[in-house]
Amino acid sequence: MSYEVLGITVLWIFLFGYLIVASIDFGAGFFSYYSAVTGQRHLINNIIERYLSPVWEVTNVFLVFFFVGIVGFFPDTAFYYGTALLVPGSVAIVLLAIRGSYYAFNTYGTNKNNRFYMLLYGASGLLIPASLSTVMTISEGGYIEVDPSGGVTFLYGKLFGSTYSWTVVLLALVSVLYISAMFLSYYADRANDRGAFEVVRKYALAWSGPTILCSLLVFFAIRGHNPVHFDQMKHYAWMFVLSFACFLVAIYFLWTRRRLGVAFVFVMLQFGFAFFGYGAGHMPYVLYPYLTIHDNFTSEPMAIALIAVFILGLLLLIPSLYLLMRLFLFDTKYVQGKRAK
Amino acid sequence: MLLSGYDPVMYSRILTGVTLAFHIIFATIGVGVPLMIALAEWIGIKRGDDHYLLMARRWARGFVITVAVGVVTGTAIGLQLSLLWPTFMRVAGQSIALPLFMETFAFFFEAIFLGIYLYTWERFKKKTTHLLLLIPVVLGSSASACFITIVNAFMNSPAGVTVKDGKIVDISPFGAMLSPAMPTKVSHVLVTAYLTCAFVLAAISAWSLLKGRNHVYYKKALKLTMMSAFVFIIASAVIGDLSGKYLAKYQPEKLAAMEWHFDTSKQAPLVLGGILTDDNEIKYGFKIPFALSILAHGLPNAEVTGLNDIPKDEHPPLYIHYLFDLKMGFVAMMVVIAGAFMLLLYRKRSAAFGNKWMLRGIILAAPLAMMTIEHGWIFSEVGRQPWLLRGIMRTSEGATTSDHVDTMLIVFVLLYVVLGVSAVTVLIRMFRSNRAEDEIAAKGFKGGDEL
């Protein structure tokens, strides 16, 4: 495997990690607010809080890791995306900032369950995926104009007027709610909290159909927007078929209320196959048609250094992440709220 | 538009400055406070004194709020670097990506263990196990500061790269990390962060004592924090002196501009204050003979390069002289305050914890320390101008060409105002509603009466 393929694979894995953990977090924020409005908050709030409190900061790091990594491996991305994304990027920063801080203010401060904080927290959870997903949209090409002198202009009108960009936003929103509800079903089941489980199970089932529907919409839209990418994705059709099969397995377990841990693993596989199938079809472009992983790769010494540091970093991270999960995810007593803090 | 002409370079500089000025407060707390928490918990376990354990717990509770703001503003500056300085980041990605990448790992490590630490106070049989969980937090946060400062050191004195026709060729990723500015900068940033946090925590205890809440808990906290502050301020002074020697050797233009030193000469005096006339004569300034030569090279007879020997278009702005003098003024006041406390502690103990002026001085030291951090940082960044990467890229070449930087500036200023006000309100409420002496009484904590 060449360094550039290794580099982009590592980054893609971390982005996938962010997709999963951030979706759980964003969706939980929305459900937390939604359940307060519908008067069911007392049922599901405990499990949401117990899971999110120790891990929210870690979620953010996945994102930081991705954008720092991509500038390191593919320095030209900083120039193109940086110039183009000033406004959408800044909007995403503001939303992330509001969300992260008001979560902490609400959870650790004395003024708990402040409706206004919860609204900020819940609403930002839906707006962030929408704004971040525009980066994916832009990578398909057609939304950036590069003049002969190398100046980059972002075509706002095209982004807001394009069917493709809106289907991606829709898919992002629906997936966030689906992934989150599936995870919370698993967590509530482990906590042996039947009341919470029935509520989040309903959420998960409700969002499962729309997830598949939106995925299909994106397929059609991408065929219209970037036929080259669509043709390449057809080479990886088996991955999308497997993705759908995993979806069916996950829903089957949820429907029959059995093996919810396995169900969530299949949710991850469902998104994993689709995400990597999409990514493989996207190769070799990082930004169609301007940047490819081959022409815009960093120098060899830097690539070797980054990969070496990455491996050392993983040796440190994996045991730490394992410890975190053992203490807060796989520890039945903690999940059931029977541990002193 | 704020002004008639839209200049993305200027707006990018202002916005980056605003973000960093805000972030640096929380970053400093993020680096220093874990060390103080660890000290308190360690003493508490060693002496079997619940007061110190409660101290660690209360500090950690407030710390979490500042961490949240630190994390989100850190994410903001991380993304803003690419959004506002895309050309610079393209070059930085080629040359100095390694420490940036390492920083995310350090941050990752810190985030994981902080989450664990906060939720496992009562979880382990042995108390030391819980303290051990804090060590990765202390190491991770200090390592983060170290790696980010390495990037800044590279901007001040690029190393490990060969420049050909204004482009970087032939990169040594580890060589770039070991730039000449690195040792002094990293140690200065770390020690002053510890110092500032010691003063901030001391000020909180001093505030309670000043309000007549004389519980021994506050005296213990004050003694621990002020003794730490005293140690750190001595360390900062030594490192500050080494920074002067670094500047003389590698960035003579910065040293010359900050001291208004125009003609290269031996036995150079250090000028405090003063104003500059149109023909670069210094008026009303207070001159300390030989002091600049000593600061620059350690010898009163040493030669110090003057600004006249540096091309005019590479001169940093001359107002950094005032920034530096102001900063040194703050440092002098902090030395007096920390010194006075130590003197009282060993000569007249009751006054150290009871004298109103002593306590007021300590409360003043906290904002002074934070302002010194801000001034020192602005001084260092402005003193690098006109360069973004010294000798390679000018600031004007690195900025974005996008529209709307001015609008973004307004958006972010509003964001920081809202975040700042909310964080302070939450922190004040948190400690007002749950005072240490009440918590000690409620939970039946036992601690000794001696300090």
TrEMBL record, chain A:
The organism's superkingdom is given as Bacteria
Q: Can the keyword Transmembrane be found in this entry's annotation?
A: yes
- What name does this protein carry? Cytochrome d ubiquinol oxidase subunit II
Please give one Pfam family short name: Cyt_bd_oxida_II
Residues passing through the membrane, by range: 12-34, 55-74, 80-98, 119-144, 164-184, 204-224, 236-255, 262-281, 301-324
* Localization (cell): Cell membrane
Where mainly found? membrane
How does this protein sit in the membrane?
A: Multi-pass membrane protein
The terms describing its cellular component in GO are: plasma membrane
Family of the protein in this entry: Belongs to the cytochrome ubiquinol oxidase subunit 2 family.
Key words of the record: Cell membrane, Membrane, Transmembrane, Transmembrane helix
Entry keyword Transmembrane helix = yes
TrEMBL record, chain B:
The regions listed as transmembrane in this protein's record are 20-43, 63-84, 96-119, 131-155, 186-209, 221-240, 328-346, 358-379, 408-428
Q: Which domain of life is it from?
A: Bacteria
Topological type in the membrane = Multi-pass membrane protein
What GO CC annotations are associated with the protein?
A: cytochrome complex; plasma membrane
This chain's source organism reads Paenibacillus sacheonensis
Subcellular location, record wording: Cell membrane
Sorted alphabetically, the keyword list is: Cell membrane, Electron transport, Heme, Iron, Membrane, Metal-binding, Transmembrane, Transmembrane helix, Transport
Protein's GO biological process: aerobic electron transport chain
Family that this chain belongs to: Belongs to the cytochrome ubiquinol oxidase subunit 1 family.
Alphabetical list of PANTHER family matching this protein: CYTOCHROME BD MENAQUINOL OXIDASE SUBUNIT I-RELATED (PTHR30365:SF14), CYTOCHROME D UBIQUINOL OXIDASE (PTHR30365)
An example of a GO molecular function for this protein is: oxidoreductase activity, acting on diphenols and related substances as donors, oxygen as acceptor
Name of protein = Cytochrome ubiquinol oxidase subunit I
Kindly report the protein's main subcellular placement as a broad class.
Answer: membrane
